Amino acid sequence: MNMHPQSDPQVLTTRDGTPLKVSLAKALRREKLRSLALIAPLLIFILVTFAAPIADMLLRSVENGIVENTLPKTVNALSGWDVTSSQLPGEPVYKALYEDLKVATAEKTHTRLGSRLNYEASGMSSLFRKTGRRIKRMDEAGPFAEQFIDIDKDWGDLATWRLLKRYSPKYTPGYFLNAADAQLTADGIAMKPENERIYLLLFARTLFLSLTITLCCLLLGYPIAFLLASLPLRSANLLMILVLLPFWTSLLVRTSAWKVLLQQEGVINDFLVWIGVIGDASRLVMINNKTGTIIAMTHILLPFMILPLFSVMKTISPSYVRAAKSLGATDWTAFWRVYFPQTVPGIGAGAILVFILAIGYYITPELVGGTDGIFISNRIAYHISSSLNWGLAAALGVILLGAVLLLFYVYDKIVGIDNVKLG
Amino acid sequence: MKLKTILMAGAASAMMTSAALATDLTIVSWGGAYSNSQNEAYHKPYMAQNPDVTIINDESSAEAVAKLRAMNEAGNITWDLVDVLASDAIRLCDEGLAEEIDFDEELAPAPDGTPASEDFGDLIVADCFIPQIVYSTTFGYRTDIEAWKGKEPDDICDVFDLETFPGKRALEKRPINNMEWALLCDGVAKDDVYDVLETDEGVARALAKLDTIKDQTVWWSAGAETPQLLADGEVAIGSTYNGRLFSLIEEQKQPVKILWDAQVFDLDGWIVPAGLSDERKAAVMKYLRFATDTQRLADQAKYISYGPARKSSAPLVGKHATLGIDMAPHMPTDPANAKNTFLYNYEWWADYRDDLDAKFQAWLSK
């Protein structure tokens, strides 16, 4: 059988003899390229300002070139040394360390390495600073091991060398382990001591509080959105302004306002004491804890729930409910069986918007969260701006991003992302 | 082609004239009353003397370390001079982000000719750091609490004494200072505090002491919180910076007093970012020489109750610029206030900060 298209009478061809299929594909490809060219500016913009920083952050969470870059000879000399050995490395390693540190001190990179290693073991920062100060006075002829141990006895400590050896590879799982309350030890990966574990707890709390806040927003926002959608246009507009007004007020002002309201000597407590619901001695603690975070964040995120709900409800024709009622449904059945299912896309959109905003929130928990109402983002901010441990901050960020993507996937499976509607 | 040449020539000449006419100095500080004091004592007189200099204020000191690191990575340093805490200066110096300073070469000597390095003395805690003020972290307490039956706290350990002095406390949400105070009140001698804190048992001991007041404590992260909490009566005793308490007491006339016992001295000062062009660096150093001389440091104390870092400035401290009260008795370094002080150990905290912070935060969230 002859498969050649041109000679096959069954295949339609264009005038110049190419099969129609091929020609169509070519035209479609040209069309696609043209549309690609049209969106290219946006695509490049997103790649440069969104995808690239995220990729850079991903890389930072495992990147660890600093040890090898600062102490190249030492890392090389250490390759022959067994990390489980109970003997200190030999004189050549100390000699290499001397040569490396001499260069590093001149370039002032030794202290940078010190602060990097200090994240893994306290004392490294001052060890490198101290050694850097004394390196010029060392005898170039050696013996080096003795002189280093003379500067600081930590150079004669196996733990120091094991740490250097463990962190000499270019990439390290160290930051991710830290972010999961674990650490690298001589016998592999182990959990940190109980009194240093914090991140897993914070991740769990962030998820729990964000879900609670989303739920609170839904419970409060649904009736408001319903009211907005069913009122006549004039009063609905007025009400809408009331919903949007706090939206236009500074976040900090709103958060501080909650402080004034909720604190123990605050307006709400004063009122409750005045009407005699609670005694003066047993004023409620409503701020600087979880409650404060939930209340303040629910208030701040409420418009993000109301707006998508409202725009979906606005499109639901009142005749459906009327029809249900005329067919004998009670008010509740008409609402639950007919009206509510039609608002699910709005709930989906609102919930996902509020949840994703909540999970990364930082400033409100910091101000009203006290100790048990803070989020993982507060620790990320601390590591970015205070401790300068950007690797750990990146690892925590990556885990948070992973968690959000995972939840998004689960959400898609359960609710279906096609069911989400913003209006 | 022609257009391009014209444009380029225009741009070049514009750049040249602006460089010749004016120098912009971007100076980063903390904002609020503190920036105001620098503005009055340093910036205004300097700009009056040098009309070609314009000083641009940036209030980013709280994020200075992270921002400087980011600028350094991006290779574009937009700041000329940054006001930071001594502990941050040490970090910046360690990271190679701040310029080393030759004190005697680049700063003015005292009026009697004492070289700058001697005039600043022990306060030079890092090669990159020019101290400006001594401030202290200490406690303020309300004077109108009936349950105290007329007694007033005069010992640091009264903070931990909930029986004699019931009421809420405000403490900073980080281990620094709190751990030291806890150990001091747990019977550790002043000189041994850091040795004890270096061990796991020492940390446990300090946290156990803090446990005794944990459920009565509000944890703050911004210096303005404690004065607010004290003014609202939310807390009875709270730690903060002494300058904040000064304005709470003297400017806002709140019924609050300062507990000076075991106040922790700390330093704040300037660093010059590494990687400035020679021209910019020269302009900054000229300003620095002026702003850190004996008279200027003494002038700053007219506006805020922080002690000048030069020994030679102390006798020149006068009255408050608007309140007209003598500033000397409000200085943390005044002999009557400084009977029992605690010196913050920078080197030690640089080493143990990360470790202790993890433990402290884990303890807090329990």
From TrEMBL, chain B:
InterPro entries: SBP (IPR006059). Keywords: Periplasm, Signal. Residues 1-22 form the signal peptide. Transmembrane segments: none annotated. It comes from the Bacteria. PANTHER family: ABC TRANSPORTER SUBSTRATE-BINDING PROTEIN (PTHR30222:SF2), SPERMIDINE/PUTRESCINE-BINDING PERIPLASMIC PROTEIN (PTHR30222). This is Extracellular solute-binding protein. It comes from Stappia taiwanensis. The lineage of its organism: Bacteria, Pseudomonadati, Pseudomonadota, Alphaproteobacteria, Hyphomicrobiales.
